Amino acid sequence: MPFDPKPTKYPFPEITDRHYLVVKKDRGIKIDKDYPYLDRSLGLRIAQAFTRLGLTLIAFPVSIIYIGLRIKGRENIRKHREILKNGVISCSNHVHMWDFISVRKAVRHFNPNLLAWDRNLNGENGTLIKLVGGIPIPVNDLKASTVFLRVTENLLMDKGWLHIYAEGSMWEYYQPIRPFKPGIGYYSVKTGKPVLPLGFSYREPSWIRKNIFRQPAAITLTVGEPLYPDTSLPKSEREKDLIIRCHREVCRLAGIDPDENIYPPVFDNTKRIDYYPLEAN
Fold it and tell me: What pLDDT is recorded for position 278?
């Protein structure tokens, strides 16, 4: 079992897909059927190109210092490059504000988009999230959801890369892999594209990182191999089967025995399990 930082300062919610971060700013952007979920305007494409340059020159090197990032399994990107460049859904546990930067560092020359919390796109970090490829998930709006699904499905059919945090929210330095929501199964079965699992795990922090930077752990990202829907199963069972296999693989990549992970693989209003006290430090 890898190092478990057992964070106690974060107010993890009762339901495992809920957010605890407080978004202080509201930019008043309406995320509805008319929102440009995949903005292809020239101005944004230029800004995103400069953002990618900034990630390469600044953010990627800083991530090694800031979160102690190590990446394993990158050979799987090279090994399956021909498959991945034709469109892929990637998924991982969501454990740090910088973990999508870590994903982008791992996949390097690919340019993934990610599904993001709608409030984050409207908050203080909204511009940056959009620049790195964030696509907000609309809520309680059927027409907006229809447009959103069409846009994201077309992205995959156009050989794009879509990253999904299948747990549904970010719980910082949390080790157990929370249940997965249905997105990865839906998109893969719908489009025929594979799912690339990735797993974040932790290493015991050095004295400097623990006592000077006050960080509970250093972070490792491990890249797995693509998984496909099992076409021998009835269509009604393919999505759930793929979600379960992806969840088990993310557990393994995070250094956790899937049979010993404390959560079931599929989300069903799953409640948090307090396997350690959630008290303030």
Answer: 58
